[in-house]
TrEMBL record:
Gene3D superfamilies: Glutaconate Coenzyme A-transferase. It comes from the Bacteria. The lineage of its organism: Bacteria, Pseudomonadati, Bacteroidota, Cytophagia, Cytophagales. It comes from Reichenbachiella agarivorans. This is CoA transferase subunit A. InterPro entries: 3-oxoacid_CoA-transf_A (IPR012792), CoA_trans_fam_I (IPR004165), NagB/RpiA_transferase-like (IPR037171). Keywords: Transferase. PANTHER family: ACETATE COA-TRANSFERASE SUBUNIT ALPHA, KETOACID-COENZYME A TRANSFERASE. The keyword Transferase applies.
Length: 231
C-alpha cells in the first residue's frame, strides 16, 4: 500500500504526448510546482490541460505554454497570462472557457461517476450553444458533461504514504475534486508522514483516490498580484 515515489520525475512516468491532465490550483495557490517543472523538463507535448487558470507567464502552467507543450486549455480564468492570450488570439492554442462553478462541478461529477448534470450557468450565452436545454422550476438549464483525465496532478500540505491528503486554507481549491477524477492521481506534498500521523477527521482526500505521492521541495509561495497601501 506504500504509494511513495522518490520525486516528480518518477511521479510523472507514463504521461505521454497528447494526454489529458487535470492540475489543481487557483492562481498560483496550491499548484503542483514540482510536477509542472518535471513536465517541462520531459518536453511532453500536445497536452490538454484542465485547470482553473494557466498560471502566469514565468510560473505554473505558464512554463508549459512558453515551450508550446499545451495544445488545449480547459479553464475558467486566464487573465494573468499574456502568453496565453497571445496563443489563444493567434489560434495556436485551443481554449474551452467554462464558468468556474461549472468547471468545479464537472470535475467533481467525473470523480463521482456522474456522466452529466443540468445547470443554469451559461444558458443564453456562447457557453450554452449546442447543448441540451431543460426547464426546472420554471428556469432553463443546460446539460454539462463530466470531466476526467488520464492523470490528475494535485498539491497538498500534508500527506501520508497511503495517499491520504490534507490541504491548507485556500490551497484546497480545485485539488480535492480533481484528485477524484484522474485515472491516475499524483500528489505532491509539503510534508510526507507515516500512516497514523494524520487525524482521520481532518483528511480531505482519502488515499483510495491517490496512486502516487512524494514530498516536494523548494516551493516558492509566490504572490500573483501584490497590492499594498500607500504610506
Amino acid at each position: 500500500m506504500n504509494k511513495t515515489v522518490q520525486n516528480a520525475e518518477e511521479a510523472i512516468e507514463g504521461i505521454k504526448h497528447h494526454m489529458t491532465l487535470m492540475l489543481g490550483g487557483f492562481g498560483l495557490c496550491g499548484i503542483p510546482e514540482n510536477c509542472i517543472q518535471a513536465l517541462v523538463d520531459a518536453e511532453i507535448k500536445g497536452l490538454t490541460c484542465i485547470s482553473n487558470n494557466a498560471g502566469v507567464d514565468d510560473f505554473g502552467l505558464g512554463l508549459l505554454l512558453q515551450k508550446r507543450q499545451i495544445k488545449k486549455m480547459i479553464s475558467s480564468y486566464v487573465g494573468e497570462n499574456a502568453e496565453f492570450e497571445r496563443q489563444m488570439l493567434s489560434g495556436e492554442l485551443e481554449v474551452d472557457l467554462i464558468p468556474q462553478g461549472s468547471l468545479a462541478e464537472r470535475c467533481r461529477a467525473g470523480g463521482a461517476g456522474i456522466p452529466a448534470f443540468f445547470t443554469p450557468a451559461g444558458y443564453g450565452t456562447e457557453i450554452g450553444e449546442g447543448k441540451e436545454v431543460r426547464e426546472f422550476n420554471g428556469k432553463p438549464h443546460i446539460l454539462e458533461t463530466a470531466l476526467t483525465a488520464d492523470f490528475a496532478i494535485v498539491k497538498a500540505w500534508k500527506g501520508d504514504t497511503l495517499g491520504n491528503l490534507i490541504y491548507k486554507g485556500t490551497a484546497r481549491n480545485f485539488n480535492p475534486v480533481m484528485a477524484m477524477a484522474g485515472k491516475v492521481t499524483i500528489a505532491e506534498v509539503e510534508e510526507l508522514v507515516q500512516p497514523g500521523q494524520l487525524d482521520p477527521n481532518q483528511i480531505h482526500t482519502p488515499g483510495i483516490f491517490v496512486q502516487r505521492i512524494f514530498q516536494g521541495k523548494e516551493y516558492e509561495k509566490r504572490i500573483e498580484q501584490r497590492t499594498v497601501r500607500n504610506r
